[in-house]
Every structure is written in structure tokens, then in C-alpha cells.
Write a structure and sequence with these properties.
alpha/beta, Rossmann fold, 2 domains, 6-stranded parallel sheet, 3-stranded antiparallel sheet
Length: 415
């Protein structure tokens, strides 16, 4: 069966993480993604955090699979003309340069529309319009300015960022949704449009439940937070450690072997409907007849004691054993899985979420496959391209350049 975005051509002017995340998802869905890179050096992540000398880093390979690489310098006369032809030949251009970079190349939005009225021009920004619009943003800056850090961390500790790349990759995923919406709209209107997603906005969207809680705080304490009932609330949503953030209390508890295994823990949620089964399995059936324990309202005053008793039980069993026992009882829980465990998880290999890819220079490596599964449009995962690997192929087959034009561009340093 055909790929979902087969026939859509993407002009990929992205680098590092946020933009490449977006274009790789489009490539997984079958779009022809042509990655434009600087001649001689390419995407800066090709050389960042290398584990093997003089070979493209995993930072690059894991964000640029299924793409074709073309080297091009639009600042040269030949490169500028070639870039204009790419705009004419492509459906979508995606970029995450500093503000105004594409304009300074000589291609403001107005000119792009003249060249190709159907072009969709998608951009990753750090901030939306406002006092910080021209500021550069990186992952942790986005987490801090989007509300994630202020609401993460130990209850009385300092703000903490998460290892999940909710600023970069999170913004890239949001941008995919905007591009797909613009493509659908173009089917009706016949015209392209600008699509922008700010990293701060994407992080805030992922933190929307905390904005919910900010408004609830004006009407009284947040009873599902560990600060209730004995702690104090300020005028902003506090950090809550490992609290669930929902109406059902949850916490991370130790499992057997925690003294030597930093990931021997499991998250357990004391959902009201399954609480009787949980109480019985941990040896506290007596709670079910005790008014100090047998209602959610009563238990909210005893959460520390509740999870301490649960932990006494979980510390006698491995984390996977705990999950095997609690899941049939409909008790929501999840073991803390290390990256080593995830890399070796057979079920993730079987679904194509973790994929082994063979690279001509670095050999085999693991990468993430498309997490979005379509029933009739499979996503194949291919290796990342070598720098400029497809330059001549693309210039000939997509733009129709002949050997003489290609040689001229090469002499000018355009490719």
C-alpha cells in the first residue's frame, strides 16, 4: 500500500533537533524530504557528541533517517538560483534558523509566494510575537520559559528540567500537525500558508494541566498535591515531586534490589475503583472497614503512610513482578524502565518503535521508528544520508539541471 504522504516534497532547511524531528516524521509518512546542508560541514550535529571518530554522530543519524541530503550554499549566485528552483518544485519548506535568516538569503515570505503560491512555509520559533521574539532558544530554555521546570522537581527543591525533549522534539511534533493541516487546507484553497510553532508555546501546551491548576488555586488548595493538607500553597502552582497531578494519588515506590539498581522502582496509582484489590494484595484488608482509610477523602490525609505501606510490599518483589500482580487487579502501575531495558525490549522491536539500522560508515545502530501507526500506510525506517549523498541525483531528477549547470554550481562552491 502507498505511503500516506507519497508525492509530497519537503524542502528541509532544518538543523539540530526541533526542525529535523518534524521533517523526519514527514519522511516516515512517505514524503520526499530533501535536506539542504552547508557544503563541507552539513548539519552541525553530524559532528556533535560523536562516539566514533570521523563518523556521523548518533545525534544526527537518529533525527535524519529517510531523507536525501543535498549540499547547497544559497549565498552564491548559482546556489541562489538553485534554491529558488527548489521552492518552485517543493510543497513545503521547513526551517528552524534564527529569526530572519531565510529573509537575509533573499527569500522573504512574499517572494516565496511569488515563486510558488502553493508553498507551505513552516518555521520553528523560540518565542511567539512579543518582547522575546528575537531571542534564541534551546531545549532547557524552552522547558523553563514554558512552565515545565517551575512545576517539576522535589517539593522543596529547585526547578528541574526533564530528560524528555519536550521543547525541541515536542515543538517539532506540533509543527507536523500544522503542516498537515495546511496541506489539507491547500486541497481546498489551492494556496499555501505560513505555519509557525514556538517552542515556548509547545511546552506550555504540554503543561496545560498545570495552567488548569493555576486557575484552581485561586479557589482553594490543590488537594491532590503533596502539600495538602499540612503544607502551604503560594500564589503559583508548586512543584509536586512524583505526585500524579490528577485526581488519583500516585507515587514512585522502591522495589526489590533498589539498593544497587537505580531503576528498581515502580509508579503505583491508588485509583479509587481498584483500591480494595490493592489493599488486599499488600496485606491491608483491614483498611476496607476502617473509615480512616476506606474513602478517597479519608486517604488524602494519609498519603505518605499509604505509599509507605505499599512500598513495604513492593520492596519484597521485583518491579516486573509487581506489575504482573497489580495489572490483573486493574491497579494502574508502571515500572521505571531504563534506556538499556527499552533498547532491548522485544515488543518495541516488533512494533517498529525501536529499529536497528545499518549505516555504511558507523555500522548498525538503534533508532526510534515512527511512534504514529497507520493501518494502511506503513512507515519504513531508513538510515540517515551521508553529507551531500544525493546532490547530483536530486539536482538532475527534481530540478532538471544538466551536467554543465551542476559543474558551474560546483565551481562557484554552491554545492
Amino acid at each position: 500500500m502507498g505511503k500516506a504522504l507519497e508525492g509530497v516534497r519537503i524542502l528541509d532547511m532544518t538543523h539540530v533537533q526541533a526542525g529535523p524531528t518534524c521533517t523526519q516524521i514527514l519522511a516516515w509518512f512517505g514524503a520526499d524530504v530533501i535536506k539542504i546542508e552547508r557544503p563541507g560541514s552539513g548539519d552541525p550535529t553530524r559532528s556533535q557528541l560523536r562516539d566514533i571518530p570521523d563518523v556521523d554522530s548518533l545525534y544526527f543519524t537518529m533525527l535524519n533517517g529517510n531523507k536525501r541530503s543535498v549540499t547547497l550554499n544559497p549565498k552564491t549566485e548559482a546556489g541562489n538560483k538553485i534554491f529558488a528552483r527548489f521552492i518552485e518544485a517543493c510543497d513545503v519548506m521547513v526551517e528552524n534558523f534564527a529569526p530572519g535568516a531565510i529573509d537575509r538569503m533573499g527569500f522573504p515570505w512574499e517572494k516565496i509566494q511569488e515563486i510558488n503560491p502553493r508553498m507551505i512555509y513552516a518555521s520553528v520559533k523560540g518565542f511567539g510575537p512579543g518582547p522575546f521574539a528575537d531571542c534564541k532558544v534551546y531545549e532547557n530554555v524552552a522547558q523553563c520559559t514554558g512552565g515545565a521546570a517551575s512545576t517539576s522537581g522535589e517539593i522543596d527543591g529547585f526547578p528541574t528540567v526533564t530528560g524528555a525533549q519536550i521543547g525541541d522534539s515536542g515543538c517539532g511534533i506540533h509543527l507536523v500537525a500544522g503542516i498537515l493541516a495546511a496541506l489539507f487546507h491547500r486541497e481546498k484553497s489551492g494556496r499555501g500558508q505560513r505555519v509557525e510553532c514556538a517552542m515556548q508555546d509547545a511546552v506550555l501546551n504540554l503543561c496545560r494541566v498545570k495552567l488548569r491548576d493555576q486557575q484552581r488555586l485561586a479557589h482553594g488548595p490543590l488537594k491532590e498535591y503533596p502539600q495538602y493538607p499540612n503544607g502551604e500553597f503560594g500564589d503559583a502552582v508548586p512543584r509536586a515531586g512524583n505526585a500524579s497531578g490528577g485526581g488519583q494519588p500516585g507515587w514512585i515506590v522502591k522495589c526489590k534490589g533498589w539498593e544497587t539498581d537505580p531503576d528498581s522502582y515502580i509508579y503505583v496509582i491508588t485509583q479509587a475503583a481498584s483500591f480494595p484489590a490493592l489493599a488486599k494484595v499488600i496485606g491491608h484488608e483491614d483498611w476496607l472497614e476502617n473509615p480512616e482509610w476506606n474513602t478517597p477523602e479519608a486517604r488524602i490525609h494519609r498519603l505518605e503512610q499509604l505509599f509507605a505501606e505499599i512500598e513495604k510490599w513492593t520492596m519484597t518483589k521485583g518491579k516486573m513482578e509487581v506489575m504482573e500482580i497489580l495489572n490483573p487487579l486493574n491497579v494502574p502501575c508502571g515500572p521505571i524502565l531504563s534506556m538499556k531495558e527499552l533498547a532491548n525490549e522485544e515488543s518495541l522491536r516488533n512494533t517498529g518503535t525501536v529499529v536497528e539500522v545499518d549505516h555504511p560508515e558507523r555500522g548498525k545502530y538503534l533508532t526510534i521508528g515512527n511512534p504514529i501507526k497507520l493501518s494502511d500506510s506503513p512507515s519504513d525506517v531508513e538510515r540517515s544520508p551521508l553529507l551531500g549523498e544525493h546532490t547530483e541525483e536530486v539536482l538532475k531528477t527534481v530540478l532538471g539541471l544538466d551536467d554543465g549547470e551542476i559543474e558551474t554550481a560546483r565551481q562557484q562552491g554552491a554545492i
